[in-house]
Design goal:
Keywords: Dioxygenase, Oxidoreductase. GO terms for molecular function: dioxygenase activity. With about 220 residues, this protein is mainly beta. The protein has one domain: 2,3-Dihydroxybiphenyl 1,2-Dioxygenase, domain 1 (Roll), CATH 3.10.180.10. The chain has three helices and 14 strands. The strands form two sheets. A seven-stranded mixed β-sheet has the order 2-3-4-1-12-14-13. The radius of gyration is 16 Å and the shape is globular.
Amino acid sequence: MIFEEVKFKTSLLKELKIFYVQNLGIGLLKEDDSSFTLTVGETSLTFIQTDEKDDRPFYHFAVNINESQFKLAKEYLSKRVTLLQNESHDEFEFIDWNAHAVYFYDPSGNIVEYIARHNIKSTATDEFTNKDILCISEVGLPVLDVSNVASTLESEINLPIWKGNGKSFQPVGDEHGLFILVEIDREWYPTNDKAQIFPVMVKIKDSDRQYSFPHLPYYIV
């Protein structure tokens, strides 16, 4: 499953554009007065200015990178951002997922993850570039009832249950595209930030599956 489009809200539109385009060098696809869209591998990522005066939306999302480029990607990011740490570690191995990852904040407080999934093989080169970014592969969705929402996505739009505990944390989808269902107020790893509900829109590539979450501002179109 590939996320073709992902849309988030932000209260810091100008700062985010500078951060992603000028600092990280990610391609700018389009922009207007209230939004801009980035090319993140196969995914277009749009940030939209929130209309709520005191609203400060933040999200967790992950970006798949060529797995052979993890060390080079970490080096590239380390020159441009402060990598998040947990117990003095700034890179994380997920044995059950066969993956390595690093995390950082953007100016909106989004918890951004660059993840190398070793089940998705790639060929090593001598440098990391944004061509090594494959797609946005995870979008976090805080919900009231993780198990119920996971079951609904499985039955309504045929998304497989992936690895998780089924109660407070449950990914659905596959390694190319996962909705990370978590309980509201669960801390987003590796931070102390508690998961909160903010509007999300995701379009799945080559799919006519649609779903609107009851009582939540999440839309799969």
